[in-house]
Amino acid sequence: MRSWRFKPRHITETIAKFFMLLSFLVVAVSLLSILWTVLSKGLPALSWEMISQTPKGGYYLGKEGGILNAILGSLFLAGGGTLVALVVSLPIALFLETYVMKTRWARYVRLTMDILWGIPSIVYGAFAFTLMLAIGMRASLLGGIIVLALLEIPIMTRAMDEVIRLMPEELSQASLAVGASKLETALKVTVRQMLPGIVTATLLAFGRGIGDAASVLYTAGYTDRIPTSLSSPTASLPLAIFFQLGTPYPEVQQRAYASALILTLIVLIVSLGSRLVSARLGRFINR
Amino acid sequence: MTTGLPSLPLGQRLFPRRKHDSTGSKVLLVLTVIPVLLLLAITLALVIKSIPLLRDHSLGSLLLGTEWKPMKGLFGFLPFINSTIWVTVLALIIAVPPSILTAIYLAEYAGKTLRSVMKPILDLLAAIPSVIYGVWGMVVIVPWVQSRVLPFASRLPEGFPLLKTSNPTGFGILSGSIVLAVMVTPFIIAVTNEVLTAVPQGIRHASLAVGATRFQTITRVLVPSTLPGIFASVVLGFSRALGETMAVLIVVGNVVQMPSSILDAAYPLPALIANNYGEMMSIPQYDSALMGAALILLVMVLILNIASTLILRRLMGRVRRAW
Predict the structure, then answer these.
(1) Mean pLDDT over residues B275-304, rounded?
(2) Which CATH number describes the domain made up of B61-322?
(3) Cβ neighbours of B142 in A, within 8 Å
(4) Which of A130, A182, A245 sits opposite B49 (nearest CB)?
């Protein structure tokens, strides 16, 4: 007799499982739909011209050219921003974990990081733009790099903090026990042990930086030329997509799709790269 | 001397290292001040820039005013605040149940293969820039709302005020919310999944061993003990959704009005700032008003953060008592 199968709780189980499977399918389908849309719309519009040329006259009316300015601009902006953020974030994360693990100050700093993490990028953009106005700076590569660095610092610090916290405590204790100072332990043991995590955190922040449009909208500006110095205005891919999407011409909208594909590919490469790097580096550390 | 040891006395040999250590710790301490200063600076700068606006208008007339006519000096933020709340809340209503169910499914029912396939996909989707979600919304969601949802809503009898609209396009709150919902989904799933997989296997076994079904184990053991984590994931998703600019801007319609239905067009705060920054210099007090909008957004995020911290603390207490 298998009458126990029909007890209410088993019916509940079946119903619940059905709903879970259903929501899994809904989520999976909508997420795949995004990737499919970007691929199917972007691929036909993608050409060598798109990625090798800057916009020529009348580009936004559907004439010749490409978005090399935006591709390079985005790489410069996100690369510079990530570098600055790394220089600030790594020491903060190391300090929080080595010197002041559980003090009140460390708690405050972590809380601040959480709050900063939640602040919308448009607010960062507005803040940075106000500052730039106050000191008479114009929309430029430097402005964009600074605002992206500000945006990325909380992301990177939080990620590194998490990673360093996972490190076995015995490792730093062993280092301290043989006479190394805290600084030496942080620089020679912790950093080495956490290298894969640090790389992952950096690439994560780079990905966020390169995809952010709202913060660079008024701080980096937009131009058809490739930036030549820190003070020249700089185009970025997300804004290129946004502007091209906003035009009434179908040819230009096609290019928006192609640009979206390019941006997605860059993010995909960065994401895969971080996996590869951390797997590769992971072999050299002891777990 | 054949040993090669430095001939300095012990104290002096140690000295430079100690000095490095103490200077090092001071430099690092100064660096940790940066984020705290940054938060203060952002708040302060926005407050200072909003002061000219506050001097001429009462706070009440700004926050509760519904007229937005910068040329006439009328700055009522309520349509924008309302739009932000509508879009965000609807997005969460759409996103949270399927995300949490999916996370539970992945953590508790799914096989190893599915899990190992889903994890990189979720990581990638969490990394996809919001403007891409906006493009998807414009290509897929807006036409869908226009050709399917709108005709359906117009055939409905009286009694569904949330679906009554005069907006003839698919650009509106529903489209914005769907795009936002899909955007925060990978995020909520990833965090909830992580929280669930952190629960020791023995606890599940204990519950199953006394005869509970899997679902009973989930609702009575796993969910209560991981509630703070799940709650945190939802709040994080919430604050992402609240401040999202580009993805929403593209599909939400950008009409200044008090929305009364999910099919109406709306104009959230981030879109207001992003759309008007360029021309703000030409109209008096416009820049102050836009900074005020940024300040309102910041305050909303801060309130959300503080409230969630307080609630989280209470939940944590309850969980600890339950164990």
Answers:
(1) 84
(2) 1.10.3720.10
(3) none
(4) A130
